[in-house]
Amino acid sequence: MSSQAQLGDDDLFGEAAAEMREDVEEHLDAARAELPSADDVWETDADNVLGVLNGLKSSLDIGDVAEELRQAKKWYVIGSRAEAFDDAEDLEEEIEELEELVETITEAREQVGELTGVMPQLRGALQDAADAEDEDEEEEEEE
């Protein structure tokens, strides 16, 4: 193979590596853009606990974050295995940080979902207990 052909291959490889890095960065940016805002998960205008929980659960929906993160990781793995990146530590750190955040959000959403199911039952049980107490007091007054 001539040195000119080798140089062309090196140029193509360098161009492909730059495109891979750009793809990883674009998918990471897209994933970050899909994350809920801090205000969305903190502020509420609901009138009761169930409204707060339903609003929080909705705000913790991460939409396409997981798919964008998967795509970023896929291109990162390909680039890393091909040794296409001169310095990939920053990409690896960003992917890991985003994976941890996605895991935290997913766990929080599951916990909120559980509370959303429990709170109406708890309210009903407390109402039943209060009604039973009221009935006991009425019976005592009648005697």
List keywords for this structure.
mainly alpha
What does this structure look like?
The protein is mainly alpha-helical and 143 residues long. It has one domain. Helices cover 83% and strands 0% of the residues. Helix 1 packs antiparallel against helix 4 and helix 3 (49-59) packs antiparallel against helix 5. The longest helix has 54 residues, at 89-142. The mean pLDDT is 89.
- Give the overall silhouette: rod-shaped
Structural class computed from helices and strand pairing: mainly alpha
Total of helices: 5
Overall mean pLDDT stands at 89
The share of residues in helices is: over 70%
Content of β-strand: under 5%
Strand tally: 0
Q: Main β-sheet: number of strands, strand sense, barrel status?
A: none
H/E element order: HHHHH
Unreliable residue runs: none
The total number of structural domains is 1
Distance between the termini: 109 Å
Write down the Rg. 27 Å
